[in-house]
Amino acid sequence: MNAFETITQWHEELTAIRRDIHAHPELGFEETRTSDLVAQKLHEWGIDEIHRGLARTGVVGLIRGARPDNGSMVGLRADMDALPMQEHNRFSHASAVAGKMHACGHDGHTTMLLGAARYLAQHRDFAGTVAVVFQPAEEFGAGGRVMLEDGLLTRFPMQAIFGVHNMPGIPAGQIALSAGPVLASNSEFRLRITGRGGHAAMPHLAIDPIPVATHLVNAWQTIISRHKKPLEAAVISVTTLHAGDTFNVIPDACELGGTVRAYTTETLDLIETRMTEMATLVCQTWGAKADFQFNRIYPSTINHAAETAFAREVLHDLVGAENLLEQTPIMAAEDFSFMLEKIPGCYAFIGNGDGSHRLDGHGEGPCLVHNPSYDFNDALLPLGGSYLASLATRWLETETYPSQAAT
To answer: What residues does Mn(2+) bind to (predicted)?
Structure first.
């Protein structure tokens, strides 16, 4: 019996686990209950070693093959954290915690990896070790980077690592993946413009920071349209603007901030340099002072070509060519990127459907990630778990790692 047939037998149990996690969401580095549940299930299912404490709430399980150990190790990763938002769904497994919600499907990702771990613990006809990595704080806090800083790769020397994220809009049963950049880098910026306050009826006696800010909001967009290469995608979005307290007073200062997304370091360097220059010079032109900060949060998620081709072969056998798609890069960000900077791997996207899977009592909004009406599609659990398990066993069966064969 193959992985899909086996894990499908556990579908009801896995669904219950997923919905339990969904009902009890925890934010980044606070996933105590979730990591306890993960560790408990790994222990029940006979995983050889269970390591806790990386990035505070992270869990790593080791599953050793029955064949003589050859030193090979492959990693499978899932994220566990929820988002700080209020759920609009009213079905029985809706969030029981006010202001917290699994609105990105990490509850499903965790459960898919649990299903894969259970299968691998029962089917050990491979040489080497599988490391199942349950990571905290993907949304905020860069838990992937913190796990690396806490010794993830030194303690568990994986030759490659794989992950998967659900994708609303792609039909359930289909999976998309492509080599190269698939998710953008995420950077945040803040600018405080200090002018000189005064009476709104006498603007010539003040230095009004508000028109400086509005000028910069527009000027920064010329970086996208006139400074970077036209074929390289990037986004500058000003998302906050705060100034003043009453209608007849010009404020002393104005603060604005937002996000920058790009796929290449070259483009990101250009954007940071030009934004800094414009902020400084435009403020000087108006007689104001600029305090500009630019923080690079997550790098771009870049799939390795050989590992992506390998994953595509696994998926071809699992779902067929008709259910394999090319993933169009999107401007969201992912801290799995930190792991892919260190070792080869691939991040794929499994279709979550159009939202028709949601139970009665769901919110009126669309079933999109980071939407209060979202819910993970439990029909994906056997497929996602089978994909991850198949990746690991096929990887450990290869005599030469894909990246080595490609060089």
So the answer is: 104, 106, 139, 165, 370
